[in-house]
Design brief:
By secondary structure, this protein is of the alpha+beta class. It is 32% helix and 28% strand. The strands form ten sheets. Strands 13-20-19-16-15-14-21 form a seven-stranded mixed sheet. Strands 3-4-5-7-6 form a five-stranded mixed beta barrel. The chain is globular, with a radius of gyration of 31 Å. This is Ribonuclease R.
Length: 735
């Protein structure tokens, strides 16, 4: 026998006990005989087979394995198997997050056994703890999180590889030449993973869509959507189905509804909105109270369960708002036409109507299907002008803020309605704040785009009184619908929007950071935490550290989610809360409309498991949409900074790590990194306790919250990453 082959075989024999255990562990529900183990090890000579038989007897004697029928062995059942979710860290190693375990299970890259980030796996935990870590090995992949990935294709003569964009994907994907789908070398593609053969280093896949050349605008936007598995067009059969729906208003349908067409009704939305899914009506009652209606597009009238339209809406679960486009949940015929509460058109609506006193106390409420007629449409800026100029008897909207770019006058009764509702909204908001609600008015970054979607400028969108007026009445409708169903006996299955109390560890970490800026929190109880959080958010307004602290404060909160198990909404300080007001762009609102009508009709409680599953899907899709929206903003920020490479910017240090300093530019909120290796005036060391890096020789300190000047060193559109060059501290640099 050749020498090198003999050596290899000896290695197999030497580690035989461990190898046999590994084989049995990988498929611990199946019994193996010595022949099957020999075949797996590719050992077919009598000597090796004898050794396997001998080792099996040894392991049986030690109690490691059991003989369950003649000559067939199984691993001794152990409590060491868990089911969990893979979280890939750096260098291809990972952790398995198991709900019932306090500590995550560490898994070396060689023990991941082809598991990828987000997969649900079975993991075997070794009894030993290394350096305090519980360590394990993936024994079975139970569910792949995803099988489609975005990456750049490298085409060779006979095959291709796709380098996946996601940094948590530790392997490339091998693509046979006949499955590259016409992709050219260097293009971005969407690749589907088809199989991962036992002996292969990389999974095998096929290109399902060519996205275009990296760096091109449409390529990058489509890549963002594809990376999160979000569609950017409707299947033809769904479009055709939607286009065939009869969207006319019928007398026979009006008879089944409360007719509110004669009540003063209007919408207030962003200037560029096309889907108006909510309208407000206002009427003064003889007893001095007001009747205020919150009218929501009756999407569930058109979108019926069991249709391809409903299936598609459920799969999408939400509209996705990218920087340059909206990917709607419903086809345009519904989202921008039939279900959009456009001015001077009759519409089917689902309404929450309240009798409210001048002190903003709700005396009566009514829920049901209605038909409404919107008398006017306002942009937030126009409504804001009315609120800010209550003494203007001409009720004029100047041309510079008018939607039509022309000056016009507003009917006095609409002005009165807006001013009165603004006053009521402020009272409702004050009550909410007193009850312990938290006011997150985070500044939003918006871009001014040219006709080719290139960013020409950046502006910040703030929430003003007109925004808060709409917000407050939407909150009233959402809360009241949830309370109306939630308080009924016997208990009924319903879709709630819940928000848990913040995690103590996250709040402690936030406290640690904000004290560097001279702020503190009172975390004695739930109420004091909320009050001091509000004070913090108010105190930082307009300060250099505002965006940093706003972001960290939001991160310290739990994530809001959909569920049938109500625990209330901490951030809003409501015991009951749901989403009822945006069914054009959120599927949970469609579910809420259906359930509410079902219960108004006297229906029995719906199946909890079915709705809990739908809630989980809706929460997952909301997270994906949020990530895609964040990525599109990041992409546009990098694109904007690419055109300002020679400019000096003032920024705030927003994060410090052992590899670099993160700096957020004050004027446009773009964040980039100064790599420590690029700081050439000294050798800097990271001080974790101080959130700082310190020069060994100069003792120069760059610390979280410091103001510094930077320049763009590199703007990478594909990775959506900015590298900065450090110019120095503000106090030193421009004196």
């Amino acid at each position: 026998m050749p020498k090198h082959k003999r050596k290899k075989k000896n290695n197999k024999i030497e580690n035989l006990s461990q190898t046999i255990l590994n084989i049995l562990r990988k498929d611990h529900s199946q019994a193996f005989n010595y022949k099957q183990i020999a075949a797996k090890l590719q050992l077919d000579d009598p000597s090796s087979r004898n050794q396997i038989v001998k080792k099996l007897k040894d392991l049986q004697g030690k109690g490691s394995i059991q003989e369950i029928e003649r000559g067939k062995y199984i691993l001794t059942p152990s409590q060491n198997y868990y089911t969990g979710k893979v979280d890939i860290a750096g260098r291809g190693q990972g952790y398995i997050i198991v709900e019932d375990l306090e500590d995550d299970i560490y898994v070396k890259s060689k023990n991941l056994n082809k598991a990828l980030n987000g997969d649900i796996v079975e993991v075997y935990v070794f009894k030993r703890k290394k350096g305090g870590k519980t360590e394990g090995e993936v024994t079975k992949i139970l569910e792949r999180k995803r099988t489609e990935f975005v990456g750049t294709i490298q085409v060779q003569e006979n095959f291709a590889f796709v380098d996946v964009t996601d940094y948590k994907m530790y392997t490339d994907i091998f693509v046979p030449k006949n499955k590259i789908n016409g992709a050219k070398n260097g293009e971005k593609v969407l690749v589907a993973m088809e199989e991962w053969p036992e002996k292969a280093d990389s999974p095998y896949g096929k290109v399902i869509k060519v996205l275009g050349m990296p760096g091109e605008h449409n390529t990058e936007i489509h890549s963002i959507l594809a990376q999160y598995g979000l569609p950017y067009e409707f299947p033809k059969e769904v479009e055709d189905f939607a286009n065939k729906i009869d969207t006319s208003i019928k007398a026979s349908e009006i008879k089944k509804r409360r007719d509110m067409r004669d009540v003063l009704t209007f919408t207030i939305d962003p200037k560029d909105a096309k889907d108006f899914d909510d309208a407000l009506s206002f009427e003064k009652l003889e007893n001095g109270n007001y009747e205020i209606g919150i009218h929501i597009a009756d999407v569930s009238h058109y979108v019926k369960p069991g249709t391809e339209l409903d299936d598609e809406a459920y799969e999408r679960a939400t509209s996705v708002y990218l920087v340059d486009r909206v990917v709607p949940m419903l086809p345009e015929i519904l989202s921008n036409n039939a279900c959009s509460l456009r001015p001077n058109e009759e519409k089917y609506t689902f309404s929450a109507v309240f009798e409210i006193t001048p002190k903003a106390e709700v005396k009566k409420q009514w829920f049901g299907r209605t038909v409404t007629y919107s008398d006017a449409r306002f942009a937030y800026e126009e409504a804001q002008h009315i609120i800010e100029n209550p003494k203007d008897e001409t009720h004029t909207i100047p041309s510079k803020i008018s939607i039509t770019d022309k000056e016009y006058t507003v009917k006095p009764e609409i002005v009165e309605a807006i001013l009165e509702m603004d006053r009521l909204a402020k009272t409702l908001r004050t009550k909410r704040m007193r009850a312990g609600a938290i006011s997150f008015d985070k500044v939003e970054v918006k871009f001014i785009l040219d006709e080719n979607n290139n960013p020409e400028g950046v502006y910040f969108k703030e929430s003003k009184d007109a925004n808060k007026l709409i917000e407050e009445f939407m909150l009233l409708a959402n809360r009241s619908v949830a309370e109306f169903i939630g308080k009924q006996e016997p208990k009924k299955t319903f879709v709630y929007r819940i928000h848990d109390e913040p995690d103590d560890e996250k709040i402690a970490a936030l406290e640690n950071i904000i004290k560097r800026f001279g702020y503190k929190l009172n975390t004695k109880d739930r109420h004091s935490t909320a009050q001091s959080m509000n004070k913090l958010l108010k105190d930082v307004q307009g300060k250099k550290e505002q965006n940093l602290i706003d972001t960290l404060a939001i991160r310290s909160m739990s994530k809001a989610m959909y569920t049938t198990h109500n625990i209330g909404h901490y951030g809003l300080a409501f015991d009951y809360y749901t989403h009822f007001t945006s069914p054009i762009r959120r599927y949970p609102d469609v579910m809420v409309h259906r359930l509410l009508q079902h219960y108004l009709d006297g229906g029995k409680s719906a199946k909890e498991e079915e709705y809990e599953e739908k809630c989980g899907h809706s929460s997952d899709m909301e997270n994906l949409a949020t990530n895609a929206e964040r990525d599109s903003i990041k992409y546009m920020q990098v694109k904007y900074m690419q055109d300002h490479q020679d400019q000096e910017f003032l920024g705030v240090i927003s994060g410090v790590t052992e590899w670099g300093i993160y700096v957020e530019i004050i004027s446009n909120k773009c964040e980039g990194m100064v790599r420590l290796q690029d700081l050439n005036d000294d050798r800097y060391e990271f001080d974790r306790e101080e959130y700082a890096v310190i020069g060994q020789r100069t003792k120069n300190v760059y610390q979280l919250g410091d103001e510094v000047y930077v320049k763009v060193k590199n703007a990478d559109l594909v990775k959506k990453h900015l590298d900065f060059t450090m110019l120095g501290h503000r106090k030193d640099y421009k004196n």
